[in-house]
Amino acid sequence: MEEVNLILKNSTPFCNLSKSFPDITFLRWCNSSVDYLEFYGNSENLDSIRKDLPGVVRNLNSSIIHSNNAEGRFSALIKCRCTVKNSTIRIAESDNCLWVGPVEYSGGSENLSVVAVEQSNIEALYRDLESIGSIRVVKKQKVEPESMRDLYTISSKRLFGELTEKQVQYILTAIGSGYFDIPRNTDLRALSSRLSISKSTLQEHLSKANSHILKALEPMLFLYLKTMGHEGKSAN
After folding, report:
1. 60-85 burial string, b = 16+ CB within 10 Å, else e?
2. What pLDDT does residue 223 have?
3. pTM listed for this prediction
4. Pair 60, 48: CB distance under 8 Å
5. Which of 59, 63, 73, 194 is deepest in the core (most CB within 10 A)?
6. Greater model confidence, 63 or 231
7. pLDDT of 181-201, one tens digit each?
8. What values do phi and psi take at 111, rounded to 5?
9. What is the residue extent of each domain of the chain?
């Protein structure tokens, strides 16, 4: 199985909406019955998209079920009218690919991740998406069947699966001893003495553990960064 992350540019309704509002980032979930959309941006852009969204929805022969306004965010639940003619996720499903939500739209582009069992499914998807616009492959990686659930949840395996038992033990001891506190309650020399290993060995284990965890968190951090500035979060 393979997971592929794609950047798409096309004339589907939601991609067109992103082109009209390039400074707004919005996320989309769909269960074939309803679409849930979350928009993030400044108040002026959000006011504009609130006014435009009903027209977009009408063009889809759909309707808004519910909407909600919050600081830096606007969300809407609409009846799904997705087909292979107006939705890339329906195209992915028609090519026997499983799409991974949420789909992200920003700057007039769509970020779509899919999982496919066969390479032929991916090739068919490429052909179909290229027929309606441009595609760019951002990342492609193998996915083991037993790890499929990790694509949809923040699992302990996804976060810590690359760590060795020693790395887990050392990082837990470091946390418990206050090594990661600010200011620190212990230093590397004292910690290595407590664990009866050399300072350099402990440093290597902690560095590798931190690297594995941060890489696992990268997709979630990237998504959070896209939205945090629109929810009144401080940079400090």
Report:
1. bebeeeeeeeeebbbbbebebebeee
2. 62
3. 0.66
4. no
5. 73
6. 63
7. 888 889 999 999 999 999 999
8. -105, 110
9. 2-147, 156-228
